[in-house]
Amino acid sequence: MSVDRRSFLLSAPFAAGAALAQEAPKVPTAMIGVGNRGSYLLQGVIQQPNAKVAMLCDIKPDRLDKAATAASKDNPATTSDWRKVLDNKEIQVVFIASPPYLHAEMAIAALKAGKHVYCEKPVGLKPAEIKQLLAAAKASKQVFVAGQQLRSIVQYQEAIAKIHDGIIGDIVMVKAQRHATEDLPHDGSSGDWFFDVAKGGGYLVEQSVHNLDLCNWVLNAHPTKATGFGAINFYKNQPAGRTIFDCGSIVYEYPGNIQMSFTQNVFHPRAMPAGGQYIHVFGTKGAVDLMNGTTMYPIAGGEPVVLAAKRTERPFAHIETFYAAITEGKPAPINASVGSVAALTAILGHEAMVKQQVVNWSEFGINL
Ligand SMILES: NC(=O)c1ccc[n+]([C@@H]2O[C@H](COP(=O)([O-])OP(=O)(O)OC[C@H]3O[C@@H](n4cnc5c(N)ncnc54)[C@H](O)[C@@H]3O)[C@@H](O)[C@H]2O)c1
């Protein structure tokens, strides 16, 4: 059967494209920890055209089964031993979504095994292990991304670029909060570790690390010291044996005498105004509510200015950029240094709350 020129021209690029698509190598990827967050990240990996799910790891068999079913098109191997993931030479990329107290150990071992690493936040709970992680990342040629996906939100990127360009003048103060209406469910997916401060780090370290990272980003610095108070005032001994605070008030100092005050609680009534999360950045020309519309309010009065319009984000933009950094050499959205600084900022505030005194960043003994 002859093929006329028109059909050839129409079909050839598709045929070539199809062949290319078939030949495009898919990066063998493993997930360690496929609980709540890990199974969400797994969806993101499944959607990447340049990734294949080659191995899944969790110590809970039901979660492993569920994840294997979700990724069945790639027929991944499964294991309950995360070191077997690292021993598998085929695996190039490892996602770590285990509880926080395991992150640094797993991430350091994964980097040393030559894997690219996507490590959920916080990257570590102790300054000493974060120091080791930084050294491992420096020694590695692989891509390391912390799961601080706010860094991939274009609206924040644009607004913060304008703030860095001086649109609100010099930043003189920041006021931020992360209030929730209730505790994380005591019998939820992460209930077996979240309320133990040694395993999760507490709300400031485990959750507010996102907000604190945004503060560091907009201030283009990390704090030099912190002081504060934290307490268990609402959920006393709930769940039994609880060791994480349910509220806290921290003041950080950044270079240039800039104060950043931060409060968090998990009992802000839904109907009461001023709940939720915000970061108010005060400058000499005006202030911005960074997390709620990136709106700037000029100090001299006049109309508020929206610094960057909200976009419909690609839900897995952070994961996309991670793979683009691996396969195309594009810049990673966040590296080990930024992830470590965010975790250390949270740890500094936590230590200040525990010690009820001023804690200095220099005490970490970490040069960045
Ligand atoms: N970036 C974000 O917005 C975001 C959102 C939610 C959670 N997280 C982070 O993700 C991490 C996991 O949180 P989660 O809510 O999914 O908790 P989770 O308890 O639901 O999941 C953790 C999983 O790790 C598994 N696990 C524990 N020890 C393991 C081991 N030694 N080897 C392999 N697997 C092991 C558990 O069995 C569990 O399935 C936390 O660090 C959390 O801070 C990030």
3D structure, described in words:
The chain has 368 residues and is α/β, with parallel strands linked by helices. It folds into two domains: 144 residues, NAD(P)-binding Rossmann-like Domain (Rossmann fold), CATH 3.40.50; 190 residues, Dihydrodipicolinate Reductase, domain 2. It is built from twelve helices and 15 strands. Strands 14-13-12-11-7-10-9-8-15 form a nine-stranded mixed beta sheet. α5 packs parallel to α6. The longest helix has 20 residues. It is globular, with a radius of gyration of 23 Å. The N terminus is likely disordered. Nicotinamide-adenine-dinucleotide (NAD) binds next to α2.
Would you kindly provide a brief summary of this structure?
With 368 residues, this protein is of the alpha/beta class. It has helices at 5-23, 36-46, 61-70, 82-87, 103-112, 127-139, 154-164, 197-200, 203-206, 209-219, 317-328, 336-355; strands at 27-32, 51-57, 77-79, 93-96, 116-119, 144-146, 171-179, 225-231, 247-254, 258-265, 277-283, 286-289, 295-298, 305-306, 359-360.
Give keywords.
Dihydrodipicolinate Reductase, domain 2, 36% helix, 368 residues, 2 domains, alpha/beta, Rossmann fold
Tell how many strands the DSSP assignment holds: 15
Identify every distinct bound molecule in the structure, by name, code or SMILES: nicotinamide-adenine-dinucleotide
Whole-number tally of structural domains: 2
Termini separation comes to 68 Å
DSSP helix fraction: 25-40%
Average pLDDT reading: 93
Helix-strand pattern? HEHEHEHEHEHEHEHHHEEEEEEEHHE
Rough shape? globular
| The CATH H-level homologous superfamily of the largest domain | Dihydrodipicolinate Reductase, domain 2
Structural class label: alpha/beta
From the alpha-carbon coordinates, what is the Rg to the nearest angstrom?
Answer: 23 Å
Q: Determine the strand fraction and express it as a percent band.
A: 15-25%
- What is the CATH class name of the largest domain? Alpha Beta
Largest sheet: 9 strands, mixed
CATH architecture of the largest domain: 2-Layer Sandwich
Say what the CATH topology of the largest domain is. Dihydrodipicolinate Reductase, domain 2
Output the number of helix runs: 12
Poorly predicted regions? 1-21
| Physical arrangement of strands within the biggest beta sheet | 14-13-12-11-7-10-9-8-15
